[in-house]
């Protein structure tokens, strides 16, 4: 009995020691600041991918190029002139991680190929359970964090006037919403 209890305690301690710490990110935009907490424990590959883009300053100067009120705001791929920035290779879809596409969550944007996400992301403006695993295509969209401060900024972005602008068609902000700078910030002291 003592061996079983000791094994359980050691197992719990190992699990706690191996749990990845959340990563906090500050996203400065032309509409205000958004603070995100990324869940490196449940979405390790996705968070590592996003952090690598932050460290490379990939997002600085890009826009939220697709905005749909009551659905989501999408960015991370195009600048103000709609030039696409080069990306790293796509990552494995981690949508099976149990995190949900709820209001304020951040998830990876992708094509119809479930494993095509690279740098583009979206912040859910509403609960979008239809995007959760297994979704309509057997995969879903991988959530990897949430907004902890600045949901008012997300709401403000979601309310901007959009129109049909080439090459995207509709849902493009008429006045570009620029991501001016993204940085990793320290967690507040407890």
UniProtKB/TrEMBL annotation:
Signal peptide segment: 1-19
Q: What does the record give as the reaction this protein catalyses?
A: [protein]-peptidylproline (omega=180) = [protein]-peptidylproline (omega=0)
The keyword Transcription regulation appears for this protein: no
Keyword hit for Isomerase: yes
GO terms for MF? peptidyl-prolyl cis-trans isomerase activity
Q: Which biological process terms from the Gene Ontology are attached to this UniProt entry?
A: protein folding
**Domain spans labelled PPIase cyclophilin-type:** 28-184
EC number(s)?
A: 5.2.1.8
Which keywords does the record carry? Answer: Isomerase, Rotamase, Signal
One Pfam family this sequence matches: Pro_isomerase
Family named by the database record: Belongs to the cyclophilin-type PPIase family.
Function in brief: PPIases accelerate the folding of proteins. It catalyzes the cis-trans isomerization of proline imidic peptide bonds in oligopeptides.
Q: What is this protein called?
A: Peptidyl-prolyl cis-trans isomerase
Organism this protein belongs to: Stenotrophobium rhamnosiphilum
């Amino acid at each position: 009995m003592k061996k079983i209890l000791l094994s359980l305690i050691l197992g719990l301690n190992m699990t706690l020691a191996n749990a990845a710490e959340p990563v906090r990110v500050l996203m400065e935009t032309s509409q205000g600041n958004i603070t995100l907490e990324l869940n490196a424990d449940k979405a390790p590959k996705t968070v590592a991918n996003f952090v690598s883009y932050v460290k490379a300053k990939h997002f600085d100067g890009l826009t939220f190029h697709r905005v749909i009120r009551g659905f989501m705001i999408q960015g991370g791929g195009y600048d103000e002139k709609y030039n696409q920035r080069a990306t790293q290779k796509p990552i494995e879809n981690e949508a099976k991680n149990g995190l949900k596409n709820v209001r304020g969550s951040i998830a990876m944007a992708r094509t119809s190929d479930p494993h095509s996400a690279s740098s583009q992301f979206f912040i859910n403006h509403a609960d979008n359970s239809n995007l959760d695993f297994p979704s309509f295509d057997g995969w879903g969209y991988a959530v990897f964090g949430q907004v902890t401060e600045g949901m008012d900024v997300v709401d403000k972005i979601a309310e901007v006037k959009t129109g049909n602008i080439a090459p995207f068609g509709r849902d493009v902000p008429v006045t570009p919403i620029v991501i001016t700078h993204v940085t990793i910030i320290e967690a507040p002291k407890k």
